[in-house]
Design goal:
- It is a single chain.
- By secondary structure, this protein is an all-alpha fold.
- Helices cover 69% and strands 0% of the residues.
- The protein is built from 21 helices and no strands.
- It has helices at residues 8-31, 39-54, 66-79, 86-107, 119-129, 131-134, 136-140, 144-174, 176-186, 191-215, 235-261, 272-276, 280-299, 306-341, 345-369, 375-393, 395-403, 419-424, 431-434, 462-485, 501-519.
- Helix 11 (235-261) runs parallel beside helix 14 and helix 15 runs antiparallel to helix 16 (375-393).
- The longest helix has 36 residues, at 306-341.
- The chain is flat.
């Protein structure tokens, strides 16, 4: 039964107001290249406020502890106002959509599959790709009994838009102060901007009205079908395979303990530092493989009983412990490598993944011997929380802060990629930690050498070194432009881009002077 029968006007009004707020917050991001910032958490709060007003009486935030998803989703929205790492922000955007849509389905009891199962993805995709479209007609064309009440509202909106546009144009042309204020708020520079603004507002309003109407309409449960039974592995063959893998992992663990942490002599030509700092990515891949093997075998040996079940459980436990050991060994090797060769994004991401994998393995060991229904929920929340924690670590700022302590700006004869150049390829979050270390000599071109018969090999790297210095200037100019795009507007405020204007102006002057020297050559 359609529960929107008594409130089509409220649905349309809330959708229109939310669309107006969204257009105001995101129009410059869509068409003028403005960066995301504080507008994301603000819209998140406004969206849930509208949803609470519309669905009052149906909300249940305690079902499956979905309030945790709400808190995590708000945390993901805050990262857009705090950090600038493009990869993590992309992942955070996907996680924000996942948390929001899953939480809404759980809160409004719209799930047609077990929560946190693979079937939940079907509900999420339905809410993302179907709900904003399939009820547009119903939202704008309610039942006959409601058309008389809705028709005046639609007519008022259609009349109000051109009237307000005409009046704003006249008032802005009459008062320059009002025109400047209006321009700073809406940034509508031409008739095309105005048309696009209205088009986005109208389109967003229709999509939100369809979404709200669909959320208030009970979704029919899928027909109960016969569930496919998982494949069954031969228990004896599975035990032999698992025992063989366990034996190999135990031998490898002993070798690791004896040579890496013990006092045994290494083969000739191999130092302890070289041995400790190699193979971390291979160990990480081996840990993932062993964990996947355990998950596959657990799915296909659920029919085990009695002594066979206890034997397989023991093998699973041993394999998962070996996976934790592989993760710890890889993590330790990465730490040694970072102490010798500094931090990078990839190394930090891998370390964060290894910690998450170890936590999931530990939870799986507990679940093997003490099964509980919430394992999928805990795993999903652990993955989301780990991604949020990695974002809060602010990897780019951490890398710049630690690597700057031993920054090597020495340029090789042929201008190979160096420490400073790696920092310049990080996001704006890293800039405050190394901008004071940049000198004019790092950017300006070096004098052309004397080309005579005594020219050295280093002289022939002159063009490569100056090309690298020129690329440094281009990269710094791009970072400065990214900061300037969102400056002065609270919608796009971001903590990582909030850099002292005096320091930024000094750096910009240095960059422009260096570029002028490059341009004269």
């Amino acid at each position: 039964m359609n529960q929107t029968a008594n409130k089509p006007i409220k649905t349309l009004v809330l959708a229109s107001l939310l669309s107006l707020a969204g257009t105001f917050l995101f129009y410059d991001c869509l068409w003028k290249g403005a960066p995301l910032g504080a507008n994301v958490p603000v819209f998140f709060v406004l969206f849930y406020a509208a949803l609470c007003v519309l669905c009052r009486g149906r909300i249940n935030v305690l079902r499956c502890h979905n309030y945790l998803l709400l808190l995590i989703g708000f945390g993901f929205s805050l990262t857009f106002a705090l950090y600038n790492n493009p990869l993590l922000l992309f992942l955070n955007a996907l996680a924000l959509l996942f948390c929001t849509l899953l939480q809404i389905n759980l809160m409004l009891e719209l799930e047609s599959f077990p929560p946190f199962s693979l079937g939940s993805l079907n509900n999420i995709f339905f809410s993302l790709f179907v709900r904003p479209f399939h009820r547009i007609g119903k939202a704008l064309s309610p039942e006959k009994s409601q058309r008389k009440a809705l028709f005046p509202v639609l007519m008022a909106i259609l009349i109000l838009i051109p009237v307000l546009g005409l009046l704003l144009s006249l008032l802005a042309s009459a008062d320059q102060v009002f025109a400047d204020l209006l321009g700073r708020i809406f940034r509508i520079d031409s008739l095309v901007d105005l048309l696009l603004w209205v088009l986005i507002f109208a389109g967003g309003g229709m999509l939100l009205a369809s979404l709200f109407t669909s959320l208030l309409t009970e979704r029919r449960q899928p027909p109960a079908g016969r569930q496919k039974a998982p494949a069954k592995f031969n228990l004896l063959a599975t035990s032999i395979v698992l025992a063989g893998v366990c034996l190999l992992m135990v031998i490898f663990a002993l070798v690791q303990g004896i040579f890496l942490f013990g006092s045994a002599r290494l083969p000739s030509g191999l130092t302890y530092s070289e041995y400790a700092r190699q193979g971390f990515f291979q160990l990480c891949a081996a840990a993932i493989f062993v964990f996947a093997l355990v998950c596959l075998c657990r799915t296909c040996t659920r029919h085990a009983q009695g002594a066979q079940k206890r034997l397989i459980q023991a093998l699973y436990t041993l394999l998962l412990l070996c996976t934790i050991m592989l993760s710890a060994s890889s993590f330790y090797r990465l730490m040694l490598y970072e102490r010798a060769f500094s931090y990078t994004r990839l190394r930090i991401y891998v370390q964060a993944f290894l910690i998450l994998l170890s936590l999931i393995c530990a939870g799986s060991i507990v679940h093997i011997w003490l099964p509980w229904q919430g394992i999928r929920q805990m795993t999903a929340l652990a993955c989301l929380t780990s991604l949020l924690a990695l974002s809060c670590l602010n990897a780019d700022a951490f890398i710049a802060r630690e690597n700057t302590k031993r920054l090597d700006k020495t340029m090789s004869a042929y201008g190979e990629y160096g420490d400073l150049d790696y920092l310049l390829n990080l996001s704006v979050d890293a800039l405050p930690y190394y901008m004071d270390a940049i000198e004019m000599s790092d950017l300006a071109p070096e004098p052309e050498p004397n080309w005579d018969l005594d020219a050295s090999d280093e002289d022939y790297g002159y063009w490569s070194r100056n090309s690298l210095r020129h690329m440094r200037c281009i990269r710094l100019r791009g970072l400065i432009a990214q900061i300037e795009r969102g400056r002065g507007d609270l919608r796009f405020w971001n903590l990582g881009r909030d850099i002292s204007p005096e320091k930024l102006a000094s750096l910009e002057q240095m960059v422009e002077q260096a570029l002028a020297q490059h341009g004269g050559r």
